[in-house]
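Incident review: delayed structure delivery

Summary: a single-chain prediction request sat in the queue longer than the usual turnaround. Root cause was a stuck worker, restarted by the on-call engineer. No data loss occurred. The affected request and its eventual output are reproduced below so the record is complete for anyone auditing the incident later.

Affected input:
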Amino acid sequence: MGQLDGKVAIVTGGNRGIGKGIAKGLAAEGASLTIAARDAELLTETANEIRESGAKVLTVPTDVTDEDQIKALFEQAMGEYNRLDILVNNAGAFDGGPIHELSTEAWDKVIAVNLSAPFLCSREAMGIMIEQGEGGRIINVGSISAHRVRPRTAPYSASKFGIWGLTQVIALEGRPHGITASCLQPGNTYVERIQNRPHPPTEPMMDVDDLAQAAVLMATLPPNINMLEATVLPVGQLYVGRG
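Output delivered after worker restart:
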């Protein structure tokens, strides 16, 4: 028996990296899943991998910057499961550079994926959860950049500050309906983008599955308890005193 038996979750950016790790963790606790991402082929591969554990997984190829596609994602998920208990806003993008050289295109791309998409997905999820009348959980994947920034990361850092603010508003507005909102702030995580670099990282890294444990904990707490925020990072990573 899993702690999430009978629960249904949507995970954006669920075909790789942190999203895949969280999806696997939720499935291991018994949740039925809808995973969404742009790469349909990789989405199918990930779903098949998760299904090997006996989990039920629906795949919906989705560009989270497209409002119509987000609405279609939730419609398909509801058509399959007829309920929603957990939303994980994980899809992310990174771009940056010196502010005086930064293009509007780069800024808009990151804000659209990292901040506007979680708003759009949360709006859909809250409508469903309020109508169900059984509460629910929204988990936003942020970054330690929401608290400790680095140069050349203006769009990314701004979006992650924004997602932390959005989380708090969702928590306040969800409170009368039993809907919680949590923000997971990861540090250095050994995702595919880093694995594929020609040179190994020099900073300490943590595995995706280790980070996913925090998201699963957020999702499995008693309904009257919320972990509003969790900063998870390798012990040796610079964070306190980070410059």
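Verification: The mean pLDDT is 95.
Action items: add queue-age alerting; document worker restart procedure.
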